[in-house]
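During the second year of the project, the team shifted from modelling isolated chains to modelling whole assemblies. The rationale, set out in the original proposal, was that interfaces cannot be judged from single-chain predictions alone. As a representative example for this report, we include one of the complexes processed in the last quarter. Its constituent sequences, exactly as entered into the pipeline, are reproduced here:
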Amino acid sequence: MSDPAALLIDFGSTYTKLRAIDLENRLLLGSAQGPSTVSTDITLGMEVALGNLEDQLGRLPDFKYRLASSSAAGGLKMVTVGLVKELTAEAARLAALGAGARLVETFTYMLSKRDIRNLVAHEPDIILLAGGTDGGNSEVILHNAEMLAAANFVCPVIVAGNRSAADDVEDILRDSGSEVWVVDNVMPALGTLEIEPARAAIREIFIERIVHSKGLDRATGFFDSLLMPTPAAVLEAARLLSEGTREHPGMGPLLIVDIGGATTDVHSVASGDPGEGYVLQQSLPEPYLKRTVEGDLGMRHNAAAIIKAAGRDTIAANAGTTPAGVDRFLQLITDDLERLPQDNPERRFDAALARSAIQVAVTRHAGTMKIVHTVNGPVATQQGKDLSRLVTVIGTGGALVYGYDPSSILSGCRFNEDEPGSLRPRDPSLLIDSSYLLYATGLLAQVEPEAAFDFTLLSLEPANAIEETGK
Amino acid sequence: MTDSPYAVKQTLITGVIGSDAHIVGNRILSMALEDAGYHVVELGALTPAEDFIKAAIETAADGIMVSSLYGQGELDCRGFRDLCVEAGLQDILLYIGGNLVVGKQDWEIVERRYLEMGFDRAFPPGTRTDQVTEILDRDFEARAGGSG
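Output from the structure prediction step:
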């Protein structure tokens, strides 16, 4: 009898990916992929991927666990509605992102007819409706519930707003035929963030409804359970590595950067509290597990936006080319979004793009420090998370795994004297998830945390080691 | 309003406006207001004008109590009532107190200046908290009587 094994599946938007892991010896038995066939029959791509895996292993082991995540069929598409942009709307946004959703739009204040038209056009899988602290404003969330009810658009709605208005909001939406989940307010009191209940509700609806409505449940013969959206699995991996398990101490606060073709995701597991000295925290508290998605920073669909954000000259300097050269390389990508670098100059251009994307994405994710001059002298104030003392940064995504000089690319996340107010990590070790295992770890952590932890530690490679081997 | 979960009186926002770190008096005022039965949302020191407004919207506050101790209040509070009107809070009660101007100036002139800016009341240095709560109770009573 062979050692117990686990099969971890990611139903992605382009590929169906498989990882087979030997739980006893903490070994990666094999990786395989097939096309994403969710638009026709999801089982087809799965069959191809399994066949591919069987070819590698000779024979498929009896899997003790077969767990899946999904970002197929557009991911878990959500819209959020809140009241003030920086307060309840921000809390709702953080909850949706933290649940691994693809957040397509955030609405604020009273929904207008135009807003409703936009919202319906997005065809969200779930709507998260917030607004008002407990006992605070109820007028706006009631108005927004009426507007949603009048839209005749049936979709699961999570109500996570002013508790005093929740019953009425629930009645209004239920009468319109929508399924309604009422959970605790994402901001029960001003400056208090409680996004866990909303996050749990999103995940529950994902498992119970979305898996079915997207046709993912046709593949149920191939897996035991489809646990979460893929980005949530990566966030779970981040949590496991940071916090450790019963037997292993964790790695402490850490950051994961995932750079893709269309977006760059940043996950942090850190309180981000101010460091030494007297620093006044000015903004809302931030979630300990925080995910941000930069929808304008992607290696292929949004390469032009990266160049715009970072500056053409910077990209040119980092890529060892001229600004005109940058335009030429960009044209190659624009003409063919699937393009992989063909030679070293193209590889260097991709590396420069990736480095800048990471720099901008981590800058947006991290907090800022500002000195305010008061009559009692200067006072340091902090907005967002202080990640400057964080010691571990993990990179994943094609540009890092297959790219030129991953160490230099990932070091885009570091603190930089040019932006002294940005609280990015000052001196982190840089690790690469070179076999794209983090989603698998996040899934495995739900059933075998010890094996998942060991296995991930073994598979993370220091970024500079990859450079030396010239991979 | 019958649906408030707080068995208390109105909701008030407190904070020190602008680049002003003098928090002690504002903290004492906040505690006194709570003792007097109000629901107080404290924003603390170094609070921009916009943050008072945002907090008042989410919490459906009935009044905003602005403190300013460093003499720059006039600059920080310029257009404060307009901001409230813009945000749909045209009826919110606005109080201000502290060292509201630089140097020694006649209080009546200072007060008039702040009332013209749209504050319902201005309080000079040395005002006791019980004076504030008394006037506040009266102002809310008058409003309730006026509208009912």
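The first strand of chain A starts at residue 5 and ends at 11. The longest helix of chain A spans residues 344-365.
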